[in-house]
């Protein structure tokens, strides 16, 4: 075997090793302990470690970035993402951008998905911030930073400031200055949030990001409806001295003209103690709860 052949086989072997490391890495960052069900963080895998020294990728940085990104897409495709899934997504996004800092889609989509989980909103901002460093003239990065501040952290001031920054960049949509001013003045109201979301989703051309935004619209709609129903139950209790047996009692009592339609295809229910809930949503959006 001549030197050229040995070199080619060496590169092929190195590539195969690195890709195998990449696929094996998916099990390493977090693992659930079977006896307790608790999630325990382990030391980062070799794939993640190599990403911090990309010169050891033997010229396969873009390929390894794609490997990590494909794994990240699989994680985001989970029907109901757990805290573990969001943690794993963040680690994968870190690997992707370490290997290929100019790969822009993971910053935008990954940051948006991470922002769906309030405990991961700061990590979403970190991911979007890394993208902004790479693409300082791209208005989408401060735009989604503002989106995360407002819709994930309930910080209308920071959201409005980031939207205003996006509005000053070349190519930004004409609606952004108005969006920024509304964020700065309206804060923590589900109806205001829905108006903003509907404006944003109409302008989003990317199908995957649009799906995330539409999911957030359904979440905010549920929170708005639950707040309406809670106020109605309170009025019913004050009027009759009892808790309604079901939500249709609120209509019969003339307190509501009708029961809102649950946007996820489920139903709104009232428990014997008067608590209102959706049978499809297990957690409330705290960001829109009054302080």
Detailed description of the structure:
It is a single chain. With 291 residues, the protein is mainly alpha-helical. Helices cover 60% and strands 4% of the residues. It has 2 domains: 10-204 and 211-220, Tetratricopeptide repeat domain (Serine Threonine Protein Phosphatase 5, Tetratricopeptide repeat, Alpha Horseshoe), CATH 1.25.40.10; 226-288, no CATH class. The strands form 2 sheets. The protein has a two-stranded antiparallel ribbon. It has a two-stranded antiparallel sheet with strand order 3-4. Strand 3 (268-270) and strand 4 form a beta hairpin. Residues 4-18 and 20-44 have low confidence and may be disordered.
Give a short synopsis of this structure.
60% of the residues lie in helices and 4% in strands. The chain has twelve helices and four strands, in the order αββαααααααααααββ.
Give the CATH architecture of the largest domain: Alpha Horseshoe
> What is the CATH T-level topology of the largest domain?
Serine Threonine Protein Phosphatase 5, Tetratricopeptide repeat
Q: What is the mean pLDDT?
A: 81
Could you say which overall geometry the principal axes of the C-alpha atoms support?
A: elongated
Fraction in helix: 55-70%
Strand content: under 5%
CATH homologous superfamily (4th level) name of the largest domain: Tetratricopeptide repeat domain
Number-wise, the strands total 4
> What order do the SSEs take from the amino end to the carboxyl end, as H and E?
HEEHHHHHHHHHHHEE
User: Radius of gyration, Cα only, in angstroms?
Assistant: 24 Å
